User: Which sequence fits this backbone?
């Protein structure tokens, strides 16, 4: 006779429904902004003639909306659905669940308001200013506390593999976000990074690469390990492979960030470490892909019929492609071709559109009908979504690969006289326009598929009846348990706190070994005595440059290749960036590098170029910024900026905050006078004057051997 007493409990489907709906809504918004940004690259008029919708400002809006709003809400929907069911208990605290939901949506709204206004740190995937950073940390910790509380009150003895990935994602994102967000506020919407130049670049790409790893990859691997077996009605192929996959992935990933900075001013040893560990990543990444695809053994006949499985198969395949391509891109000879070209854009979108997007679609198509106790409204429409989305990915990615090789081959070509065959960077841009058109068409197809899904989900909800609470029962977890002869990893799975601590140690090692020496050992960043802090006007111009997202198209890092030094001038040195908070090395060149632009053209050239780029560079795809010639700068916070930078170690003299405005006026008046001599009347305190001051400073601190 079995005396086991079953305890009754319920799962909260309402929080899952809200996160799922937010996923769909924010996904459509993020994709729409992406299509607009893609259109602007061949039709500058799509910038809509105001500062808030220019490419430089909506590009980070697009990336934040897709990563943190679309993908983020998808992660939370999947976790709040799967975790209670895997642990046989409701989430620990319903109030925390709703605090998490509304807090995250408010953060997204804050991002949608501040980024178009130019309130940005300019750090890739971490553009939001310090008050929002603090809010992110608080909401994220609430999410983690809810997860760990649920683990402690579980009725299931062992943690399933999906939960390993959820835990590691929580811990690592918290560590990454907090350390990369160290900044000193100037005022409520302005701060300066605690790191400068080379150190800032290393910390940022330690964060940036691992944000991709632990926000876009590991949580989705957890979702894959739950939803794929459910959809296929098959167990995970290999438990032991999942163990190797998990621990090797979270340990190795944290070392790989420096591969984003190959051939730059980053110390060579850090570049080598980044490359070595990036290549190693192929093994655990493909271990996960193989484990996913082989889970479908015996169910491949159903892939033909079931749109959920179609989406998941393509998602896992895209994951495999992206995680093969990533290590290949970290090889220095391949990186020399790909970096600063559209290859990187294609690579990111294979992962984003294929892996994250399609797994999200598959998860929603499986989960949504179950929330409403019905079947999907239209399987035919879901299949149509699949094929349109797949075509969208192909139309997006393939032209970007063509664009990348076109740009690289043109930029590096020399004629028989030993001169650059295409000396004008604009010659390469014009050739890429057809590819940019195809890319925008691909994005439009992908967006159209997502609209179909929204309609299908809406009709599915109408067709069924929502189950707010789903009843279940399970025996309580008994404390007496005979663990004799238990597999070692099974023992770890019974100890969630111990498991979390081990995961934290695994992810901390790589970052600590790379970052701490770069910050503490001064020889990693040799100083240059001629490099001085920015003048007040140059500092304000730099902040304006950052606010307008110019780094989204223009790098400030000349690599030691002949075709780059011939085109731009002397290659960049680590010591030139010691006062750059944040660094502005860029990741994509839609326009030429600007690190040696200072003194190359007269002030009037910059004035006319910003007012109407095509007047100085016929065929340019850069949007005009005519408002800069009339908008007045607000210098009221200049003393606070100087004091903040002094606290961060910038050697402005004592009391400089009181005399900075006088020095700014002198330099602004001089630039206004230069422009007047060229027939341009402009007020000294306009935005264009500050921007010209900054551009004319770039690269002038050291003697160079520029050929142009």
Assistant:
């Amino acid at each position: 006779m079995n005396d086991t007493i079953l305890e009754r409990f319920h799962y909260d489907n309402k929080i899952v429904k809200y996160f799922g709906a937010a996923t769909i809504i924010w996904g459509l918004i993020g994709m729409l902004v992406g299509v607009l940004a893609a259109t602007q690259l061949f039709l500058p008029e799509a910038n809509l003639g105001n500062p808030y919708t220019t490419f430089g400002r909506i590009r980070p809006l697009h990336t934040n909306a897709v990563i943190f709003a679309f993908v983020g809400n998808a992660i939370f929907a999947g976790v709040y659905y799967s975790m209670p069911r895997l642990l046989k208990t409701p989430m620990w605290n319903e109030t925390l669940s709703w605090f998490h939901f509304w807090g995250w949506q408010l953060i997204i709204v804050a991002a949608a308001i501040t980024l178009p206004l130019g309130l940005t740190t300019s750090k890739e995937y971490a553009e939001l200013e310090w008050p929002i950073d603090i809010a992110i940390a608080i909401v994220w910790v609430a999410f983690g506390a809810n997860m760990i509380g649920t683990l402690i009150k579980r009725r299931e003895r062992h943690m399933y593999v999906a939960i390993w990935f959820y835990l590691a994602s929580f811990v690592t994102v918290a560590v990454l976000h907090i350390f990369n967000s160290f900044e000193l506020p100037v005022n409520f919407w302005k701060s300066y990074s605690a790191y400068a130049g080379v150190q800032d670049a290393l910390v940022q790409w330690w964060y940036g690469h691992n944000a991709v790893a632990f926000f876009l990859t590991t949580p989705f691997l957890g979702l894959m390990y739950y939803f794929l077996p459910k959809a296929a009605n098959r167990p995970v192929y290999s438990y032991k492979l999942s163990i190797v996959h998990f621990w090797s992935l979270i340990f190795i990933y944290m070392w790989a960030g420096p591969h984003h900075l190959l051939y730059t001013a980053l110390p060579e040893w850090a570049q080598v470490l980044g490359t070595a560990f990036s290549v190693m990543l192929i093994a655990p990444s493909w271990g996960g892909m193989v484990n996913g695809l082989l889970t479908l053994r015996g169910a491949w006949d159903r892939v033909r019929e079931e749109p959920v499985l179609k989406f998941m198969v393509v998602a896992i395949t895209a994951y495999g492609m992206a995680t093969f391509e990533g290590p290949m891109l970290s090889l220095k000879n391949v990186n020399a071709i790909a970096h600063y070209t559209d290859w990187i854009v294609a690579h990111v979108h294979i992962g984003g559109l294929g892996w994250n997007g399609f797994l999200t679609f598959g998860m929603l198509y499986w989960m949504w009908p179950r929330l409403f106790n019905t079947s999907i409204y239209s399987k035919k429409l879901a299949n149509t979504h699949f094929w349109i989305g797949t075509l969208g990915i192909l139309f997006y990615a393939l032209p970007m690969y063509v664009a990348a090789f076109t740009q690289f081959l043109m930029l590096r070509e020399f004629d028989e006289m030993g001169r650059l065959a295409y000396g004008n960077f604009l010659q390469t841009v014009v050739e890429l326009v057809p590819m940019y058109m195809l890319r925008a068409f691909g994005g439009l197809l992908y967006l159209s598929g997502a609209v179909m899904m929204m309609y299908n989900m809406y009709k599915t909800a109408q067709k069924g009846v929502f189950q707010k609470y789903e009843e279940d029962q399970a025996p309580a977890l008994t404390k007496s348990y005979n663990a004799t002869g238990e597999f070692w990893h099974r023992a770890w799975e019974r100890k969630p706190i111990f498991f979390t601590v081990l995961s934290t140690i695994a992810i901390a090692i790589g970052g600590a070994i790379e970052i701490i020496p770069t910050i503490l050992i001064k020889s990693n960043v040799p100083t240059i005595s001629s490099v001085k802090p920015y003048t007040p006007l140059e500092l304000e111009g730099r902040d304006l440059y950052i606010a307008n997202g110019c780094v989204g198209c223009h790098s400030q890092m000349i690599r030691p290749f002949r075709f780059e030094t011939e085109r731009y001038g002397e290659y960049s040195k680590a010591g030139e960036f010691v006062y750059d908070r944040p660094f502005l090395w860029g990741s994509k060149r839609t326009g030429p590098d600007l690190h040696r632009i200072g003194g190359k053209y007269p002030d009037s050239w910059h004035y006319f170029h910003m007012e109407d780029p095509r007047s100085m560079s016929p065929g340019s795809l850069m949007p005009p910024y005519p408002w800069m010639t009339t908008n007045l700068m607000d210098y009221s916070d200049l003393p606070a900026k100087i004091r903040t930078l002094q606290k961060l170690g910038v050697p402005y003299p004592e009391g400089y905050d009181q005399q900075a405005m006088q020095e700014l006026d002198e330099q602004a008046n001089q630039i206004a006078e230069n422009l007047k001599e060229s027939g341009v009347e402009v007020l000294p305190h306009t935005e264009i004057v500050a921007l010209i001051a900054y551009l004319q400073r770039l690269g002038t601190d050291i003697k160079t051997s520029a050929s142009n």
Residues 426-463 form the longest helix (38 residues).
